[in-house]
Amino acid sequence: MELGVIGLGRMGQIVVDRVCSAGHDVVAFDVDEAAVERAEATGASGADSLAAMTDQLGAEKRIWLMVPAGDPVDAALDELEPSLDTHDIVVDGGNSHFEDSVRRADGTEAAYLDCGTSGGPAGAELGFSLMVGGPAWAYEELEPVFDAVATGPQGHDRMGESGAGHYVKMVHNGVEYALMQAYGEGFELLQEGRYDLDLESVAKTWNNGAVIRSWLLELCEEAFREEGGDLGDVADHVAGGSTGTWTVQEALEQGVPLPLIYQSLAERFASRNDRFSRRLVNRLRYGFGRHEVRRT
Amino acid sequence: MELGVIGLGRMGQIVVDRVCSAGHDVVAFDVDEAAVERAEATGASGADSLAAMTDQLGAEKRIWLMVPAGDPVDAALDELEPSLDTHDIVVDGGNSHFEDSVRRADGTEAAYLDCGTSGGPAGAELGFSLMVGGPAWAYEELEPVFDAVATGPQGHDRMGESGAGHYVKMVHNGVEYALMQAYGEGFELLQEGRYDLDLESVAKTWNNGAVIRSWLLELCEEAFREEGGDLGDVADHVAGGSTGTWTVQEALEQGVPLPLIYQSLAERFASRNDRFSRRLVNRLRYGFGRHEVRRT
Amino acid sequence: MELGVIGLGRMGQIVVDRVCSAGHDVVAFDVDEAAVERAEATGASGADSLAAMTDQLGAEKRIWLMVPAGDPVDAALDELEPSLDTHDIVVDGGNSHFEDSVRRADGTEAAYLDCGTSGGPAGAELGFSLMVGGPAWAYEELEPVFDAVATGPQGHDRMGESGAGHYVKMVHNGVEYALMQAYGEGFELLQEGRYDLDLESVAKTWNNGAVIRSWLLELCEEAFREEGGDLGDVADHVAGGSTGTWTVQEALEQGVPLPLIYQSLAERFASRNDRFSRRLVNRLRYGFGRHEVRRT
Amino acid sequence: MELGVIGLGRMGQIVVDRVCSAGHDVVAFDVDEAAVERAEATGASGADSLAAMTDQLGAEKRIWLMVPAGDPVDAALDELEPSLDTHDIVVDGGNSHFEDSVRRADGTEAAYLDCGTSGGPAGAELGFSLMVGGPAWAYEELEPVFDAVATGPQGHDRMGESGAGHYVKMVHNGVEYALMQAYGEGFELLQEGRYDLDLESVAKTWNNGAVIRSWLLELCEEAFREEGGDLGDVADHVAGGSTGTWTVQEALEQGVPLPLIYQSLAERFASRNDRFSRRLVNRLRYGFGRHEVRRT
After folding, report:
1. Cα(D179)–Cα(D185) distance, rounded to whole angstroms?
2. Does the active-site annotation cover D169?
3. Is A273 on the interface with B (CB under 8 A)?
4. B29, C173, D3, D17 — which has fewest CB within 10 A?
5. Which residues of chain A lie closer than 8 angstroms to C272, CB-CB?
6. A101–chain C nearest CA distance, Å
7. What positions belong to coiled-coil segments (chains A, B, C, D) (predicted)?
C-alpha cells in the first residue's frame, strides 16, 4: 500500500518508520525540509509540497495527517480538498476534538477517519493503540497500515461512526489523568508517611504481580530510578489539560458524574507548589510523552 | 527449606502450591480437615493441630500465617507463642493493619515479618507481589520462600521495619480503589455518551499499546467479555472498604490530601444506600424555589 | 416611573406586586390572559399584546423581562426590537447565560441590563437580591425599580459591564449547590450516626447563634418540621443543574478548580441513575479477588 | 443560680459576662490571676484555687468548664472529682471529642453535660448556639444558665445522651469547613474570571435577599471591606483541622460519604500557596474566631 504522511514531527516520523518497516510505500511531507530528509533516510519518498505528494499518490489516495490539533488540520485539509474525491481516504491521527472531526468528515469529499493514537513517543517500538472512527470500508481498506502503526491487529479497532475514534481517545485521556493522580496520591502518602521507604523498590515490587501493575506504574518506577525517590528538583507544576477539559465538558453535557477525572484536572489547575503527587505527574508526562519536565 | 503454613483458604492453598512446586517442604494446618487434605494432595505434609505442626518443624521454625486479618491472627499467635523463640520466623501474609503488625512483632519472641500480598486468587500462576516489613535477617532467610510465592526475585522486597510491609500494602489498596473507579468513570461516560460503543473492543484496543493499559484494564476487558458491554445484571453496589478506610485514616493523621482515593471509597459507601444529603437538597430546592419535590 | 413587565409567572407577578406597592405604574403582559388579569388585580395596567404594551409605555420605555431563559427571551426581544431606540431600557431578570446576555446587549438599540435575581418565590415579601450588568446610566435610571424589587437599596448593585450580572448570578448558583450539599452531608452523618437525634431541633439550635446559620439552614429546619426528621418520602433524586453546569464550564475555561461545586453537581447527576462506574468496580473486585458479585 | 466557671480565656470570660448580666452569681477561677481579676471586674466572685471555688459553691454545685480541649479538661476534672457527688453538674463547653465526653461522663460522680458551643468570640453580644448532651434533669436544671449563654431559649437544646452535644458540634464544624470552602470557590472564580468585580459589593448584594445569604457570607463581606477585594497580603495557608478530621473519621466508621467536607479538609492540608479560596478561608477564621491571620 502507498501512504502519504503529512506532518513529520516526533509522532509522524514514528508512523513513517513503522509503515515503511512493514513494507509499505510512504510519501512524506512536512514544511520542515530537514524532517522530510529524515523521513527519506528511513525509506520514505519525500515530497516538497502537498501538491507534489498528492500527484505522487495518484488515484485512491490514502493520507495520514499527523499535524498538531486545531488550525493546522484545517489548513492541511483545505489545501488537500481540491485533490480529493470519494475514493480517497484521509486519516487524522492527532488529538483533535471529536466534534471537529465530525465537521471535517462532513466537509470533505474523501472518506475521513478520525484516529485516536495512544502510546506516545515511548510507543515507537511496541506500536500504538489506535481508536478509529468513520466509514467501515475506509477502515477496512487501511487495516494493513493500522496493523503497522499499532501494536498489531489487536491494537486498533473501529469504534464507530465519524468522531467515535477521537471521542474514545478523549475519554482515554481523562482516565489517564486520574490514573496518574491516583498513583501520585499513593506515593505522596508513602513519601510523607511514617516509614522511610525506597519508592523505586515499592514501584518495582508492585509492577511484579500486584493488582495495580500497569505501564504507568512502570513509568513511576523509571521516574524514581532516574530522579531519585524524592524526585529531586522536579517541580509541582502540571502543564496540559485540554483533553481532560474536553472529557469533563462532554460529561457535563451527558449528565455523567466524573469526580476523579474532574479532581485530577483541578489538581493541575491548582498546581503551583510542592504537591509531591503533582511533581510525579509532571515527571510521568515526560515518561510517556517526552513533555518537557519543568524544574525548580 | 521447610515452611509451616497456617490457614489453607484460597490464598493459603496457593502459597502451599507455589512453595511445594519450588521444591520446598511444607507442613500445612487448617481447622478445616478437608483443606488439610487438599494441601496434602498437592505435596504438603498435613498437621492436625498447631502443636503437631510446630513439633514437626523442629528448631528454627519458619511459619506463614494466611488467616483472615484480625482476631484469627492473634489467636494463632497466642497458640504459637509458647513454641517460639528468637531463632524462629513468623510471616503474616494477610491484610492486617500495620499497627497490629507492629504490636504483634513487639509481642513475640520470634522474628515477625508483615507481608502484604497482592495479586489475588488470579495470581496463582503468575505469583504475587510481596511487600515485606520486619528484621532484615529474617527477610533474607526467607528469600527462597518469597521467590516461590512471588513472581520471582523481582516480586518481593523488604520495605523497612516492622509494619512497613502492611503499610505499603494498605496504600496499594487505596490506589487500587482509585484506579478501578477511574476506569469505571471512563467506561461510564462511553456507555452513556453519544456513540454506541463496544466496550470490550475499547478495552482490548486500549490494552494493546495505550498509555492506560494495565492488568486492571485487562480485567475490565474480561468483565465486558463475560458479562456483556452493559454489564448485564451486575449491581450498582460495591462491597468492601476496610483497607481503603485505613488508607484515608492514615492520610488524615499525616495531613496528606487524597481526594481521589477518598472519593473512590465514598462511591462505595454511596452505592449501598439512598443518600440522605441528596434527599435534603431535593427538598431544599422546593424551600427556596418551589421546585417540585420528587417523592418515592 | 412606568415599567412594562413581560412574563407574569410566579416571579414576574412578584415583580409586578413589589413595583406597584412602591408606587410605580406597571403595564403588564403575558400570553396567558389569566395572568394578565391577576396582575391587573394587584394594580397593574394589563396589555393584551406586546405592541399594546409598548404603545402604552410611549418614549423612554423601561421594560422588565421575566420569561424563561433561552428562546423565550430572544422571541420577546425580536418582537420588541422595532419599537426600541437608544433611550429605552430592557432588563432581563431571568437566569440567562451571561454570554447570551452579552450577545443580546450587542443586538439591541436599547440599553440592556442583565439582572440576576436571587431569593426565589420565597423572597416575595422580603425582596430579592439583584446583580445587574450593563450601562451605568441605565442602571442608575432604574434604581427606583430595583429598590422596589430588591430588599431595598442594599439588595442590588451594578456588577459591571454587560453580562456581569448574569455572570455573578451563575456563580451564586454554583455556590448555592455546594452549600445545600454541605448541609446535606452534615445532616446525613447525624441521621446515620450513633445518636438518635431530632434534626429539626439541631437545625433550630444552629440557626440561633451558630457559625453556620443561614437562610438555607432555616429552610432545612422548615423541611424537617414539615416532612419529619427522616424526610418521609422525599426521594433521593435532585433535579435541575443548568446554572451549576455553566459555573463549572466557565471555571474550566478559566482554569479555576471548583471541587466542591463540581461534586455537588455530580451528586445531582448521580442521584438520577445507577452508576455504571460502580457496577464495573463491583465486577472488577471479582476479577482480581474473586469477591462475590452482587447482582440485581 | 450560682455557677462556677473554670477557664477565663476569651470564651470563658464571655460566659461569665453573659451569666452575670442575666442576674446569676458566678464564681470564677483561672490559673491566670489577671483573668480572675477581669472576671471580678464584670461582677463575678473570684476564686484563687479550684478548692476555693468548690468550697464557695457549697452543695449542688454547677460548674462550667471552658478550658482547652484535651488534657486540661481531664486535669480539671481530676482535681474536682473529690468534691463532686451525684447532685452536682459539670458542663464542658469546649470542643472536646465526643468519645472523651462519654468517657468523662462515665468517670465522674456528677452529672456531666457535654456542650458544643458555636458562635465564637464574635458571638459575645448575640449569644451562642449550645448543643448539649447528657442527663435530661441536669440539662433542665441548667436551663437558666443556657438561656443566658445562648442567644436565648431558642439557642440551646438537649441533643441526647452523653456525647451527643459534642457529636453535633463536631458535625457542625465539618459543615462549617465546607461552607467556607464553597464561598471561597465562588469568589475565586469571580476574582479570576472575566469581569473586573468588586467582591465586597457582590457579597453585600448577596447578603441582602439572595438564597446564599448567611452569617459566613457577612464575614466574607467584612473581609473584603477590611482587606480589599484582592485580600491584600492574606496568605494561602489554612490552619486548624482537628474537628473536621474527627468528622471525616466518624463518617468513615459510619460508612457515610462526605465528599465536600473531606475535600474542604484536604484543601487545608494542601494549602501552601496562592489559592484565593483558601486565603479567604484563612481570613474568615479570623472573622468568627479571631484566629490569627497568617500573612505573607
Report:
1. 10
2. yes
3. no
4. D17
5. 255
6. 21
7. none
Whether D253 is covered by a domain: the verdict is yes
Same domain, D28 and D63: yes
- Whether B96 is covered by a domain: the verdict is yes
| Separation CA C277–CA D167 (nearest Å) | 34
- Tell me the shortest Cα–Cα distance from C226 to chain A, in angstroms: 31
C68 and C195 in a single domain? The answer is no
Q: 3-state DSSP call for residue C112?
A: strand
Query: C37 with C76, same domain?
Result: yes
Residue D118 belongs to a domain: yes
Interchain proximity B237–C120, CB inside 8 Å: no
Q: A9 and A130 in one domain?
A: yes
Number of domains in chain C: 2
Is B259 within any annotated ligand binding site? no
Same domain flag for C14 and C157: yes
CATH number of the structural domain spanning residue B138: 3.40.50.720
Is residue A275 scored above 60 in pLDDT?
no
Helix (H) or strand (E) holding B281: helix B276-289
Which of A121, A137, A161 is the endpoint of a domain?
A: A161
Query: Which candidate from C120, C189, C261 shows the least CB-CB separation from D182?
Result: C261
pLDDT along chain B (296 residues), means of 10: 95 96 97 96 94 93 96 96 96 97 97 95 90 98 98 97 98 95 94 95 97 93 90 86 96 92 93 75 72 76
Contacts of C259 in chain D (CB under 8 A): 185, 263, 267
Q: What pLDDT score was predicted for residue C283?
A: 77
Residue D2, H or E segment: strand D2-6
Count of CB atoms situated within 10 Å of the CB of D20:
20
User: Is the CB of A259 less than 8 angstroms away from the CB of C245?
Assistant: no
Q: What is the pTM of this model?
A: 0.93
Chain D neighbors of A270, CB-CB under 8 A: 270, 275
pLDDT tens digit sequence for A60-79: 999 999 999 999 999 999 99
- C287 in a known ligand binding site: no
Q: List CB contacts (< 8 A) between B232 and chain C.
A: 295
How large is the ipTM?
A: 0.93
What is the domain range of residue C115?
2-161
Is B69 flagged in the annotation as binding? yes
Beta strand pairing status for B89-92 and B111-118?
parallel
pLDDT digits (tens, 9 = 90+) for B210-240: 999 999 999 999 889 998 998 888 888 888 8
Please list, residue by residue across B264-273, b when 16 or more beta carbons sit within 10 angstroms of its beta carbon and e when fewer do. Answer: bbbbbbbbee
pLDDT tens-place string over residues D254-274: 999 999 999 999 988 887 543
Regarding whether A92 and A191 lie in a shared domain, the answer is no
What is the rounded distance in angstroms from the CA atom of residue A274 to the CA atom of residue A230? 12
- When pLDDT is averaged across residues D232-238 and rounded to a whole number, the result is 77
Per-residue pLDDT tens for C61-106?
A: 999 999 999 999 999 999 999 999 999 999 999 999 999 999 999 9
- Which amino acid, A67? V
Cell of C83: 419599537
Q: Which of D211, D259, D269 sits opposite B266 (nearest CB)?
A: D259
